[in-house]
């Protein structure tokens, strides 16, 4: 509820303080983008109960049940970050993550590309290629964990773009997802009851191509008891 009030206030403030219609659109659309990514994340966790349990164990170990999440907590939740990243790999949130007009000639993949050409980084394709990600259609947050020696190349997966024009809301969006998923798995069991193999459809942003069937069941206090 607080978030909706905050959302409305910021949107209203942007409109009235002459930052203008465009910034309001960017802000509002971006929030929908975050919620779509969160929806896919819950769907992936619901379909992988073992990953969900592993995530719950990490969150329960680190995060007080009724407390706020701090930077210090975030630094101790590597599996949670891997879960988010892996979900965005499987369901890449945008069609075009970064596109740039070349300021000078460049050789890309052995081809000379003249300056002035618009180059589009097709991360939504590279993210699902088996040469970069073994078993590319499997939800496996472990592939992003530091203990895994072979980490994917960071440029294969840039959902927020890169460089000076990268997404301004990256930290904001990530933290919203971190807080939401942590609190949800800490307090609820999430099960998948909808149809199999939900796809992603793109307008500007990616969203589920049919409604997600998720059942959220409160966890008993015994299960929630923290072991500090
Ligand atoms: C999952 C959520 C989000 C994703 C995947 C996302 C993705 C992106 C991408 C790919 C770009 C282009 C970056 C580039 O060209 O290198 C971008 C730009 C931008 N994003 Fe986001 N975004 C998200 C959430 C947000 C939020 C919540 C906000 C604001 C509150 C926001 C504000 C912006 C702005 C202002 C730009 C333009 C930056 C510039 O051109 O300098 N985004 N976003």
Automatic annotation (TrEMBL):
Name this polypeptide is given: Cytochrome P450 302a1, mitochondrial-like
Protein residues bound to heme: 167
SUPFAM superfamilies xrefs: Cytochrome P450
Any single Pfam family the record assigns to this protein: p450
MF (Gene Ontology): heme binding; iron ion binding; monooxygenase activity; oxidoreductase activity, acting on paired donors, with incorporation or reduction of molecular oxygen
Coiled coil: none
Species in which this protein is naturally found: Lingula anatina (Brachiopod)
PANTHER family per record: CYTOCHROME P450 (PTHR24279)
Sorted UniProt keywords: Heme, Iron, Metal-binding, Monooxygenase, Oxidoreductase
Entry's family note: Belongs to the cytochrome P450 family.
Cofactor(s) of this protein: heme
